[in-house]
Amino acid sequence: MNWILVPQQLVNGLMYGGTLALIALGIVLIYKSSEVFNFAYGHMLMLGAFLTWWFAGGARTGNEPISLPLGWAIVAAVLVSVLLGFLIERLALRPMAGQPLLAIVLMTLGLSQIFEGSVNLLFGVTPKGNFPSPFSPSDAYTIPVPPVDGESIVFLDRIQIGHTRLATFVVAVVAAAIFMLFFQYTKIGLAMRATSENHELARSLGIKVPRIFALSWAIAGITATLGGVLLATLSGVSVNLAAVALVAFPAILLGGLESFPGAIIGGLLVGLATEIVKAATVVEVRNSADIAPYVLLLIFLLLRPEGIFGRHRIERI
Amino acid sequence: MLKINNIEVVYSNVILVLRGVSLEVPGGQIVSLLGANGAGKSTTLKAISGLLRAQLGEVTRGTIEFDGQRIDKLSAEEIVRLGIVQVLEGRPLFSHLTVEENLRAGALFRSASESSIKHDLDEVYHFFPRLQGLRHRTSGYLSGGEQQMTVIGRALMAKPRLMLLDEPSLGLAPLLVQDIFNIIKRINEESGVSILLVEQNARVALKTAAYAYVMETGRVVLDGPASQLAENADIKEFYLGLTHLGERKSYRDVKHYKRRKRWLG
């Protein structure tokens, strides 16, 4: 174990975990409202990042029609994603109403392939390194670490937080907070929570259930795009971004599939686990940091199968 | 107010559940629909509220009119907006939401202002004072009676003109049933809501309702003012467990008699 790096890696883990938490929220949202586990989410995220990149004029073909400042490019990409969310619900999911859940989940897998194919056709298969970021990668805040009075443990005397990482963390936290407040305190939020519990009952109270589904897909489009942009500022745009959502899966399962706070805590834990294992010098296992979330998940689920905040079904006898 | 004209309901295009049901709920009245399991009572309610379609059911013949307007082709969401709200059987709650969130969920479609919703909540608490102390409790952990109150309260939040109640007495202690029915009667008298009440508990239902229909295997086999039905020999026999002399009969006799006698359709 490379103790010298531990404080630095803890901070890195937290920053990375923030983004994962935001990504996890989007998946939990759709699962909660319609019980569909959305396997297309990673690809929605990747698409959101590509759209932002394109709207910002990243294609550089010489005659690109649009070249917006980053902020507006994000807004434009979010709008397209919202529209796409509505379209998915209307064209892909509503016709499936009444079909077995597994069929609908497989439909989301199909959607993910369509997204990947479209992105490859439209934007090419090469990764794009020129994602517009307002920060330069070398900009960083330095926080001094007080020396530890111990024999064996020595920490580096400072922690560096890159501006990009800090900004992504702040954006992720703010977005997650807004999202949860919306869910808890607005009428639409209440309608979504109600629908997630019992569709027929919600319908009997005049709640337009298909509209709620569409809305949750649209909101998931927003979180996916934001998550995609955050990841892209760290690592550039490529089709591989979709795979990052795979890391959000253990985060969700860790937190409990139906819980927003669970998604956030799970995201942070997975981020921490990944980065701390990076600090460890395990040479025997390749990519040990990538495996870490799953090992964590495995151990955790053995102890608490419903996740940290997973719901017990309320059963009265 | 509500007029059902000879409706036929088919599930999944094959199973004929209602074979020509007609009934009427006049404005401001409580009308009761009695019958055994599988008679088609709940299906009748779902046909009115439009929830049938979610279960692949369809009204294939006849009409349902509400204030002169045909509603049998409307969606459940539209029917609620006309002022008909159904209280589903088995007091289903959004069990992870609090009592007050459950109540508020009943008013979601109305796009009413916060102050008018507060006013409506107070009205619900006026009918069910017990709920006020429980408002921030998770509804799934309430007792059966409290859950039934929440469910009826939630329906009231929709400001209905007609309430369809599906077996509010199910699984409740006799004293509690009496309480609930007293409140149902008060809601009817004080708010002027018409009520169509589906029940198996004929004793309470006939005491509460002004008029009643008896259903069996998808047909209405008997109807009349509740007080008259309570005197009807067959009703006494099958639903109240009394002989024509007014004394209680043993369960075995009832079963025996029931097997031999068939209602005339």
Structural description of this entry:
The complex is a heterodimer of chains A (317) and B (265). Chain A is built from 11 helices and 2 strands. Chain A is mainly alpha-helical. The longest helix of chain A is centred in the first third of the chain and has 29 residues, at 6-34. Chain B has 265 residues and is an alpha/beta fold. Chain B has 11 helices and 10 strands. Chain B has helices spanning 41-49, 76-82, 99-105, 114-127, 129-133, 144-156, 174-191, 202-208, 226-231, 233-240, 251-260; strands spanning 2-11, 15-25, 30-35, 57-66, 69-70, 84-87, 162-166, 194-199, 211-216, 219-225. In chain B, the strands form 2 sheets. Chain B has a 6-stranded mixed beta sheet with strand order 6-7-8-3-9-10, with helices on both faces. A 4-stranded antiparallel beta sheet of chain B has the order 2-1-4-5, with helices on one face. The longest helix of chain B has 18 residues, at 174-191. The radius of gyration of chain B is 19 Å and the shape is globular. Classes of the chains: A mainly alpha (317), B alpha/beta (265). The interface between A and B is medium-sized, with 21 and 30 residues.
CATH top level of the largest domain in chain B is Alpha Beta
Overall form of chain B = globular
By secondary-structure content and strand pairing, the structural class of chain A works out as mainly alpha
Main sheet overview of chain A? 2 strands, antiparallel
**Residue share in helices of chain A?**
55-70%
Count, helices of chain A: 11
